[in-house]
Amino acid sequence: MNTQDLLVNVINQSKHTLPSYQTQHSAGMDLRANLDAPVTLKPLQRALIPTGLFIELPEGHEAQIRPRSGLAYKHGISIVNSPGTIDADYRGEIKVLLVNLSDQEFVVEDGERIAQMVVARYERIVWRAAESLTDTERGAGGYGSTGTK
Ligand SMILES: O=c1ccn([C@H]2C[C@H](O)[C@@H](COP(=O)(O)OP(=O)(O)OP(=O)(O)O)O2)c(=O)[nH]1
Ligand SMILES: [Mg+2]
Q: Which residues are involved in binding substrate (predicted)?
């Protein structure tokens, strides 16, 4: 543990060890499915997969639940609500809403690393109603306004 690391309370009700960073500078920790039996996802089917983890994030922090690129590339497995948001005041179980975007069945096994969790700080805002917004070079341009190549 480094001095700048954030301490996060966790209850692990899964059969698996706590998630951990796989490499020195990984942004995310891989989350494992905590299942009594494998879950089969048919093409375009989705399922809410439990992790058995309950966490208490410090105020001002969120956890983002993101897909793993390997599962996405090899099997078309993604997350419907990507990135999922775990709020600092959430005390329920972390679950992952997987979707099978391939044309073949995919079986989620107990203990499989199905997603990654990145903890980030966030800002809360208060609105200030304005009559106009500052001019910029971009203005209202978007959706490919800068060209396609
Ligand atoms: O992938 C996810 C997304 C959310 N959650 C939990 C934690 C989060 O704090 C809570 C609510 O999530 P969100 O705000 O995205 O869902 P909602 O549809 O707006 O539900 P709610 O009305 O409960 O906020 O559900 C998960 O476990 N996994
Ligand atoms: Mg919500």
A: 68-70, 81, 85-87
